[in-house]
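Tutorial handout. Part one gives the primary structure; part two gives the three-dimensional structure as tokens.
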Amino acid sequence: MATEILSPKSRAEVRRKLREIIGSFREEIGTPPTLGEFLEIVGLAVPLASDDIEASPGTFHFDAKVDGKRYRSGRDSQVAELNDKAFVDVSSLVAFFGGQVRAVHGHAASPNELASAILEVLQGEDISFDDVRGASVSSLVATASKPVAKPKLGDIVAIPVGNSGYRMAVVIAQNRFGIAIGLLGDATVIPRVGKISPEVAQRFIYTDDQLIAKGMWIIVGHNDNLLNLFPSDPEIYHGPEPIFPSVQLGEFGAAETASGAMRQITKSEAEEVGLLNSSYRQLFVSTYLHQLMVDESSSANEALLLSPWQP
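Part two.
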């Protein structure tokens, strides 16, 4: 892009902010970010619902060249250890770049127009990462990920929920009941899962993969370790009314795994999942589940508390 996006004054201000972000990374992790770690943060922090940035069905990936050669980081990424502040700060910068592209060109920024604006800032003599100087970054190319037709176990899913950000989930099972997703923490402004702990695991829900295939639910990563936070064969529940004459469901109902194992449940468990008041659903169609997550009413919150299992 021949036309510079940022004015000298704006470029100086953004570089000052970038130095602060690099300093915050160093304080939190103990070392400045590599160029690769910074670009990883940028890819996750690109706003996916901005009028100033072209709509994308997924996250962005940035490839750089340093002194004309393709860049490769020399160490394992530590981005997963960061709290959300770095991502929020970078997201604000990227949103600013998108606004500047629109101001100069009159349209939403394409991935590579965004990359060109970011490159303008990186190439300052006062910008330095742990492995390369910003001035040595000779090119930056951005690509947007494409929808994933069939998710895999361990895939991390970001579900847009309007202005409140995203609900994060992990695919924990695919079986005759459908796809089970495990919900991870509360709504977040950045589509990422931070440090892994049992506390982030909430409830699991059976649904379908329709919105994943369409790219509305976004695959933003993969982490098999998250599977350890949820059961490998999530159960569905049956009310006490017999489904077949030969199946004994018990006085208060039963739980069944996809492998066919059946166990009778107590009254308290039946009450918790909503069997006794008929509010329990074995499966949520993804379009309906999405609407429940977007809806901020108390009834939507209650509907998501449909499995009694907790870590």
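Part three, for discussion. Confidence is low (pLDDT under 50) at residues 297-311. Residues 57 and 215 are 5 Å apart (CA to CA).
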